[in-house]
Specification:
The protein is mostly helical. Helices cover 49% and strands 0% of the residues. InterPro entries: DUF7977.
Length: 105
């Protein structure tokens, strides 16, 4: 049993026609061209180019070079630096590089 005062969404299949448009209001929502004809992922330009190689280099830095440098850092030369900055800098660099490498202009 549905009521109009329940405050939430109630799906009513009889309110839509075969095309998925609402019957009771004559409006059709224009969500843009991509809804009608979306771009297939196979047609998108998704090649592994120089941005990908930069990302691979930063991943190597973050997952291999930074941990090795933490292990090899002498304890008497700033142990706090080794536990805070050495892991933080590659992590921030990796985050920024990942966003940069995966966005296309």
């Amino acid at each position: 049993m549905t009521s109009s005062d329940d405050g939430g969404y109630v799906h009513d299949p009889s309110a839509f026609d075969d095309d998925g448009r609402r019957r009771d209001d004559g409006e059709t929502s224009d969500d843009g061209e991509w809804v009608e004809e979306p771009t297939h992922p196979a047609r998108a330009d998704r090649e592994f180019d120089w941005r990908g190689w930069v990302l691979v280099g930063v991943i190597v830095l973050a997952f291999i070079v930074a941990p090795v440098s933490i292990i090899l850092w002498p304890p008497d030369v700033g142990y706090l630096f080794a536990l805070l900055i050495l892991p933080l800098a590659p992590a921030v660099l990796l985050a920024l590089t990942a966003v940069w490498a995966t966005t296309r202009p």
